[in-house]
Amino acid sequence: MNKNLFLVMVLSILIGSIIGGIIGSFTTYNLIKDKNISKNQQQSQKVIYQQNVVIKDADDKTFVKVIEKVRNSVARIDIVVNSGTPWSKEWDDVFKYFFGKDWEKMFKNQGLGSGFIIDNNKKFLITNNHVIEKAQEIYITFPGNPKKYTATVVGADKYTDLALLKLDTTDNFQPLEFEDSDSIKIGEWVIAVGNPYGFDYSATVGVISAKNRSLEVQGLYLEDLIQTDAPINPGNSGGPLIDLNAKVVGVNTAVVITAQGLGFAIPSNKVKKVISDLEKYGKVVRPYLGVQVSDLTPEIIRFLGLSNVSGVIVNEVEVDSPAYKAEIKKSDIITAINNDIITNTVDYNKILEKYKPGDIIKIHIIRLNKKITKEVKLESR
Questions:
Q1: Domains in the chain, ordered, with CATH?
Q2: Containing H/E element for 216?
Q3: Are 300 and 274 in contact (CB under 8 A)?
């Protein structure tokens, strides 16, 4: 073989090996680098996630203090409903003879809810109407207190889902204070306290998601509700919704089971008014006008040939009602009561609730593009 050709072949092999080594090293470096970058990114993402959790939980000491302050005022409510035995009294007596006086207990249904002390002197406790609606027996217990108390119903109102109970005891309790629910803002922290699913004295945290919500619950239309993402579950009903000042902004009442983060509470200002009536009359005394109304939509406004108008439209007038006597008619648009402007049904109901039976009010109406005023004497319902 030619000596020069041999040298060229050897040099080519050496140069190829060097270049291959360089390329291989560079590729390996990039793979290691990419792997390290990927690992660093994962670590970075993990750190960021942990930081977010810390930020969310940064005020946990405040939550702890609030919960510790209110928890002994929040009650577990157990109710017993006697569904009755399927036999006549004569047969009941026979079974009692053989099985004892506790025979009927197997025919009693039980329920569970929450409530909280609002007046120590009067031993008053507030809860939801649906918690105690069918109860024959009501038992109250508190955290850290081994006693089981009985309670009687002072009054209840299904339209607001509130009930006022009185404890049968002389023991002392720490009542909770009410906050002005009109002053709370969307985004404020709140704590729901109660007994969800029978887990005693639990607390969940969230924010005020919305105000003035309406919700149909078991055929009843609840209005002016506070919406929160603090988990409210069965058993929490009747418990307090607390702000970070340890004051009650609402009474937990409902949850949309099919959706997460949708809990509702009755605002404290409405609760205070209802409690006053329940204590005095055993029921809520409402002013009765006798009309059914709905929101005035853009489609209705266009259909009626109107513009720049707000209010509620009358869908029905009950015969012999105050509205009927004042000649308020179907399709009338109620724009104001006295000097209070109405923009929707929530406004209408809140404004009407300011008055009592016997009050005379002026209702401002638009009828066939004409403004008229009707004077109405409210009755009771």
A1: 71-167 (2.40.10.10), 181-273 (2.40.10.10), 287-380 (2.30.42.10)
A2: strand 202-217
A3: no
Give the Cα separation of 61 and 244 in Å (integer).
11
At 231-248, the pLDDT tens digits run 887 788 899 999 999 999
Residues β-bridged to residue 153: 165
**Pairwise CA distance, residues 286 & 299, whole Å:** 32
pTM assigned to the model = 0.70
301 burial type by CB count under 10 A (0-12 exposed, 13-18 middle, 19+ buried):
middle
Beta-carbon-side half-sphere exposure of residue 238 (alpha carbons within 13 Å): 34
Q: What does the CA dihedral 324, 326, 331, 335 come to, rounded to 10 degrees?
A: -130
Catalytic residues, which ones?
A: 130, 161, 237
User: pLDDT (tens digit, 9 = 90+) per residue, 177-226?
Assistant: 999 999 999 999 999 999 877 677 889 999 999 998 888 776 677 888 99
State the chain's mean pLDDT as an integer. Answer: 81
Question: Interior CA angle at 95 toward 94 and 97, to 5°?
Answer: 65
d(CA 218, CA 224): 17
Evaluate the CA torsion angle 272, 277, 283, 289 in order and state its sign.
negative
